[in-house]
Amino acid sequence: MPTRRLFLGLWPTPEQRDAVQAHADAWQWPDAARRTRIERLHLTLHFIGSVHDDVVGALKTQLEVPWPGCELLLDEAQVWPGGIAVLEASQVPPALQHLHEGLQARLLALGLPVETRRYRPHVTLARKAFGAKPPPAWEPLRWTSSGYTLVESLPGGRGYVPLQCFG
After folding, report:
1. What confidence tens digit (pLDDT) does each residue in 23-75 have?
2. Which residue of 95, 101, 139, 167 has the fewest C-beta atoms within 10 A of its own C-beta?
3. In terms of pTM, does the model score above 0.70?
4. What percent of the residues of the chain are helix, what percent strand, and what percent coil, each to the nearest 5?
5. C-alpha span between 19 and 141 (Å, rounded)
6. What is the pLDDT of residues 116-152, one digit of tens each?
7. Per-domain residue ranges of the chain
8. Could you tell me the strand order of the sheet in which 160-166 lies?
9. What is the CB-side half-sphere exposure of residue 17 using CA atoms within 13 A?
10. Helix extents (H) in 70-150
11. Is the distance from CB of 76 to CB of 124 less than 8 angstroms?
């Protein structure tokens, strides 16, 4: 049976996307760095992974969690182990933590695995970014969101397709 690779995420407004891109442009990147393309910038809530096509309909109807939205402050720029350059929030707003936990409960109820590590909201700026350096001085970025999206990641890195918007 065919499968789809899915995740839940916060999608940026065009202004937020442009601000993240401008921040990324100010980094010093090693030649090997693979920067995230501007149309793929997002903030992951839950990586779902590969699911059978017949599960997608249930996800579209079962993942609606009441959420008032929130503002997230992306205030830490760093390169994680494995060479992943990120713009991260040092604090998780309570409303976002509540959404993350609510979605986790829904995913578990559907029999899907969930990440057990502490939730660290971030935007991936690049991979293979060993030695990358963020700008020495920069203003934290504000990411305001009132909805979240179920997204399919196309095979071979061909991009993302929003399947369902919530909120």
Report:
1. 999 999 999 999 999 999 999 999 999 999 989 999 999 999 999 999 999 99
2. 139
3. yes
4. 25, 35, 35
5. 7
6. 899 999 999 999 999 999 999 999 999 999 999 999 9
7. 3-166
8. 43-52, 3-10, 148-153, 160-166
9. 12
10. 94-109
11. no
